[in-house]
Write a structure and sequence with these properties.
There is one protein chain. The chain has 14 helices and no strands. The chain is an all-alpha fold. Keywords: Membrane, Transmembrane, Transmembrane helix. It is found in: Endomembrane system. InterPro entries: AA-Vitamin_Transporters, EamA_dom, EmrE-like.
Length: about 300
């Protein structure tokens, strides 16, 4: 197998593993574990493991980051607004809807990043971008209302948390961009996760939350922390080095599709035809934007 094909395969595996994390979160919430405790454990454990990996593979980047006060301040903002709030919002959206719906709503993020970029650069969106925006709005409408103008098909809190998770996911992409370019993603994400975990743990006093560790909850924690965060992120990083960041982002967008499949398979979730139409619209919007970026990159390389 060539390096590019191997990179394609492992990046797809990373996206599928991310899809499992949301369903694992839904499973844990269903067993009575609080959103705050899941968020705290996910960020703390993943941050420690990723920092340990960084200390072995990219020690210079980590030490340089720790010595730069301004960069550390940026990582703190990223930890709070791009990691802690995003994970809390995403899991709250799952609690009020389900893993697949929350994941698809979170994938409205590229539309928000597109809007931010257009405003920042004072550029009008292209025709493809306009189509993507319209598809995203239509998809959200179908998920939220099932086509009925007079009532919501999901709870208002579920919709609000889902949209807020998309906003914080956009911040997750925008806030650390410069420090990642300078110090590498592993050091920035690892440190950000640890900081975010500490913020959630201390701010929400999650040690007071009941924790029942049995075989079921351990299975769920392995899914969301081990497979859906540590494994997925490290494999995705390897895929990025083999196929490039644009290709990797495009391939990793299999996550919401995987989340839908896992939700049906593992937790017996049932979706209506209107749910599926809305999800397809949002996925098409994300795919169009990703393909546009891919084609631009390929053209510039060529």
């Amino acid at each position: 197998m060539t390096e590019k094909r191997w990179g394609t395969l492992i990046t797809l595996i990373a996206g599928i593993a991310w899809g499992l994390s949301g369903v694992s979160g839904q499973y844990l919430i269903g067993r009575g574990m609080s959103v705050q405790l899941i968020t705290s454990m996910r960020l703390m454990v993943s941050g420690l493991v990723l920092l340990g990996l960084c200390a072995v593979t990219a020690r210079r980047n980590l030490l340089a980051l720790l010595k730069n006060g301004r960069a550390l301040l940026t990582v703190c903002f990223f930890a709070l607004f791009g990691l802690a709030l995003n994970q809390l919002a995403y899991l709250q959206a799952i609690a009020y809807t389900n893993a697949a719906t929350a994941t698809v709503l979170q994938y409205l993020c590229p539309i928000l990043v597109l809007a931010y970029t257009c405003l920042k650069d004072r550029q009008r969106p292209t025709g493809v971008e306009v189509i993507s925006i319209v598809l995203a709005i239509v998809g959200t409408f179908f998920i939220a209302t099932h086509g009925q103008l007079t009532e919501l098909a999901i709870t208002p809190l579920g919709l609000a948390w889902g949209l807020f998770s998309a906003l914080t996911y956009a911040l997750y992409i925008i806030l650390p961009a410069q420090v990642i370019d300078q110090y590498g993603s592993l050091s920035v994400i690892g440190l950000g996760m640890l900081m975010g975990g500490l913020m959630v743990t201390l701010g929400l006093q999650t040690w007071q939350e009941p924790l029942q560790l049995d075989s079921g909850s351990m299975f769920g924690l392995v899914g969301i922390v081990g497979v859906g965060t540590i494994f997925a992120y490290t494999v995705f990083l390897k895929g990025v080095t083999m196929v490039g960041p644009v290709n990797a982002s495009l391939l990793a967008s299999i996550e919401p599709v995987a989340s839908i499949i896992f939700a049906v398979w593992l937790v017996n979730e049932v979706f209506t035809s209107m749910d599926l139409v809305g999800m397809i619209c949002i996925l098409l919007a994300v795919l169009l934007i990703s393909l546009k970026d891919f084609l631009i990159t390929e053209k510039s390389i060529g």
